[in-house]
């Protein structure tokens, strides 16, 4: 699996397809986060922006190989393992981006009413919940379940919006906790949201890995 992860990550890096999602995230954070504003609200916004970007990057990773190369890798390592490696490569890259964003936002925000350790912990877990929710959406909105590019993109965009506003979504719960806490200077550490997002992402990855074994 380590070799597959390295292969998928290197393929993504060389393709430069990561550039568009990264620029989108930079624009969203640059527009929505201002230096000196309350840290919890800023972390909530930065975490929410990770969701659609993660969904997009997961979709990119799962479709970045040419069909011939994908068949060769599947023959050598198995379709399920190859699919899982592409998924994990995208999630790992977004986890790094989320951690960097949380540290950066925490450093430039107002910490007068909230401790940096508590804020950073809550921000990291909220970012993780959003990354995992986005990963769930991304892996369900592309092959092998949705092959048509048009429908895939449409469902991805709509799903990203609904994941941030629908009651019961781990991402909404985590982001709302940060934004609400910003008003009262109370840190709500979203352990439950992170755990639910991780379980959902794991189930979605398992489902699509099984599906790719018999649909491709």
List keywords for this structure.
216 residues, mainly alpha, 9 helices, 0% strand
Characterization of this structure:
With 216 residues, the protein is an all-alpha fold. The protein has one domain (2-215). The protein has nine helices and no strands. The longest helix is centred in the middle third of the chain and has 30 residues, at 79-108. It starts with a helix and ends with a helix.
Secondary structure topology:
Layout: H1 2-15, H2 19-32, H3 39-63, H4 67-77, H5 79-108, H6 116-140, H7 149-165, H8 170-184, H9 191-215
Would you summarize the structure shown here?
By secondary structure, this protein is mostly helical. The chain has helices spanning 2-15, 19-32, 39-63, 67-77, 79-108, 116-140, 149-165, 170-184, 191-215. It has one domain (2-215).
Radius of gyration from CA coordinates: 17 Å
Oligomer: single chain
What is the mean pLDDT?
Answer: 92
SSE order: HHHHHHHHH
Low-confidence blocks of residues = none
Dominant shape: elongated
**Number of helical elements:** 9
Q: Give the CA-CA distance, first to last residue.
A: 20 Å
State the share of residues found in helices, binned by percent: over 70%
Q: What's the number of extended β-strand segments?
A: 0
Estimate nothing, just give the exact number of structural domains. 1
């Amino acid at each position: 699996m380590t070799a597959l992860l390295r292969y998928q990550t290197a393929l993504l890096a060389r393709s430069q397809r990561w550039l568009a999602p990264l620029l989108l995230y930079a624009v969203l954070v640059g527009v929505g986060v201002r230096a000196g504003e309350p840290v919890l609200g800023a972390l909530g916004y930065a975490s929410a922006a990770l969701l659609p970007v993660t969904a997009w990057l997961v979709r990119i990773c799962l479709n970045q190989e040419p069909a011939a190369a994908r068949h060769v890798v599947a023959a050598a390592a198995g379709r399920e393992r190859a699919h899982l490696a592409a998924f994990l490569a995208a999630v790992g890259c977004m986890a790094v981006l989320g951690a960097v964003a949380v540290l950066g936002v925490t450093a430039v925000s107002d910490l007068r009413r909230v401790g940096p350790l508590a804020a950073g912990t809550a921000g990291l877990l909220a970012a993780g919940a959003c990354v995992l929710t986005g990963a769930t959406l991304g892996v369900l909105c592309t092959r092998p379940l949705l092959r048509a590019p048009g429908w895939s993109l449409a469902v991805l965009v709509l799903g990203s919006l609904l994941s941030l506003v629908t009651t019961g979504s781990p991402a909404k719960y985590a982001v709302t906790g940060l934004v609400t806490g910003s008003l009262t200077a109370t840190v709500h550490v979203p352990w439950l949201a992170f755990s639910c997002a991780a379980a959902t992402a794991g189930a979605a990855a398992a489902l699509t890995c099984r599906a790719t074994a018999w649909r491709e």
